[in-house]
């Protein structure tokens, strides 16, 4: 694949990510941010919890002088906690709706800056300007080609000696298509470490992510981890070279009859059921409509429930 075709493909995937995440967040923003779906207060609690795992072992007296950035900041779930631990933090996201919510929620935080990316780079973050780059519940769902492009960008924006802390999945590579902007991407441990080394990082470690719910899937070979690494070199390979190391096969394009993201559908159906059980019928209907509209293989039972809600 030539560089021109590669960039064209990356931009197509980035546009799909923006469209999909804007739709998800506009429908039910807390569902797509974390397990803290019951209230904004619960969402902020999970953000502080997850940031603590990402930054475990870092001394506050050191980090309070750092400049950091969060990739995939969403509505600011982790940013609010991060603002109390660093001198300044940039929230980066591809989704317009996410940044709109974040701007509202974090309007009182003077050391938080929100920037929209085009989805394949970290521009307009300046070269070598960051001490820390972190991300949670984002990179493990990105198309692998986009992840490979971001690896190069991590190197660019971090100073020499700068640190990354990223939540990812290791284990068995999972079958999916590049068009699915939510499917879990799981990387073989050794391939993942070699890719980061190739992109100028050392001091690599993988620590199991411990959550208050079952986040691993041993049967499928999916295990959530926090990756830590330090930038040691300015030299980085091409996206194609990184992809060759990162995964055994490049993700294929979706076939013509691909129904949509199955994980998106499953999560939406579960959320709709939860809302309907609680008696929040209007909210349940809204989420159910979203699920059925975006998944061509929706079950007849889900369609029947939606029709019943419309009549009620």
Describe this structure in words.
- It is a single chain.
- This protein has 312 residues and is of the alpha/beta class.
- The chain has 2 domains: 3-246, Vaccinia Virus protein VP39 (Rossmann fold, 3-Layer(aba) Sandwich), CATH 3.40.50; 262-311, no CATH class.
- It has 11 helices and 7 strands.
- A 7-stranded mixed beta sheet has the order 3-2-1-4-5-7-6, sandwiched between helices.
- Residues 1-5 have low confidence and may be disordered.
Write out the CATH superfamily name of the largest domain: Vaccinia Virus protein VP39
Looking at the structure, the CATH topology of the largest domain is Rossmann fold
Major β-sheet profile? 7 strands, mixed
Number of strands: 7
| Strand order in space, largest sheet | 3-2-1-4-5-7-6
Number of domains: 2
- Beta-strand residue fraction: 15-25%
Please identify the structural class as seen in this structure. Answer: alpha/beta
Pattern of helices and strands: HHHEHEHEEHEHEEHHHH
Proper CATH architecture of the largest domain: 3-Layer(aba) Sandwich
CATH class of the largest domain: Alpha Beta
**pLDDT average, as an integer?**
95
Which outline best applies?
globular
User: What is the count of DSSP helices, taking H or I runs of 4+ residues?
Assistant: 11
Helix content: 40-55%
Span from first to last CA?
A: 54 Å
Radius of gyration: 19 Å
Question: How do the helices and strands line up, and which of them pair or pack?
Answer:
Blueprint: H1 3-28, H2 40-54, H3 60-63, E1 67-71, H4 79-82, E2 88-93, H5 96-105, E3 112-116, E4 130-135, H6 144-157, E5 158-171, H7 189-198, E6 201-208, E7 222-231, H8 239-246, H9 262-277, H10 281-294, H11 300-311
Helix pairs in contact: 6-8, 7-8, 9-10, 10-11
């Amino acid at each position: 694949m030539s560089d021109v075709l590669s960039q064209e493909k990356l931009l197509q995937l980035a546009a799909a990510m923006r469209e999909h995440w804007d739709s998800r967040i506009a429908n039910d923003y807390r569902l797509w941010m974390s397990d803290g779906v019951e209230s904004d207060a619960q969402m902020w609690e999970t953000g502080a919890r997850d940031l603590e795992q990402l930054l475990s072992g870092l001394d506050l007296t050191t980090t309070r002088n750092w400049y950091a950035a969060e990739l995939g900041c969403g509505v600011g779930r982790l940013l609010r906690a991060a603002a109390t631990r660093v001198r300044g933090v940039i929230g980066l996201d591809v989704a317009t709706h996410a940044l709109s919510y974040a701007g509202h929620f974090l309007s009182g935080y003077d050391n938080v800056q929100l920037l929209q990316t085009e989805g394949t780079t970290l521009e307009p973050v300046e070269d070598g300007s960051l001490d820390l780059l972190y991300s949670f519940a984002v990179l493990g769902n990105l198309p692998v080609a986009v992840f490979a492009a971001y690896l190069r960008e991590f190197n660019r924006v971090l100073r020499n000696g700068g640190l990354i802390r990223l939540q990812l999945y290791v284990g068995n590579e999972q079958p999916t298509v590049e068009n699915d902007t939510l499917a879990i991407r799981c990387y073989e441990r050794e391939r993942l470490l070699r890719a980061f080394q190739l992109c100028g990082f050392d001091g690599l470690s993988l620590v199991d992510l411990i959550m208050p719910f079952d986040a691993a899937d041993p049967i499928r070979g999916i295990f959530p981890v926090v990756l830590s690494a330090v930038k040691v070199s300015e030299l980085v390979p091409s996206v194609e070279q990184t992809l060759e190391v990162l995964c055994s096969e490049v993700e294929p394009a979706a076939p013509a009859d691909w129904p949509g993201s199955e994980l998106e559908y499953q999560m939406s159906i579960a959320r709709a059921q939860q809302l309907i059980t609680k008696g929040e019928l209007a909210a349940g209907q809204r989420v159910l409509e979203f699920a059925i509209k975006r998944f061509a293989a929706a079950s007849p039972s889900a369609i029947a429930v939606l029709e019943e809600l419309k009549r009620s």
